[in-house]
Amino acid sequence: MPNNHSMKISEKKREKIAEQILALLYSKSPQALFTAHIAQEIARDEEFTKKLLLELKNKKLLAEVNKTPKGIDYVRRARWKLSDVSYNTYKQHQI
Q: Between the CA of residue 56 and those of 2, 22, 45, 79, 89, what are the distances in Å?
């Protein structure tokens, strides 16, 4: 079966998937997760997941972590975590 990249996902579905990402990162906070791990957890392909992660970053909901815990730059990878604002908002909604 050919891989069809022209298949469009509705805006409503994209928002639901974005919510899954935020919920996942909240549950793992303060740990930052790699794109591949997030894609695996939400059962989506990495390219699509990365696109959503970047959209969430642009909305200031996520922070991209570009360094290892030892402070060395990642060359081809990134980890992701909730931005402080996002984390605090989530935390208030969990009460």
A: 29, 9, 17, 13, 15
Residue 91 is predicted with a pLDDT of 86
- Domains of the chain (ranges; CATH) run 14-93 (1.10.10.10)
Please state whether the predicted TM-score (pTM) of the whole model is above 0.90: no
8 Å CB contact between 64 and 78 = yes
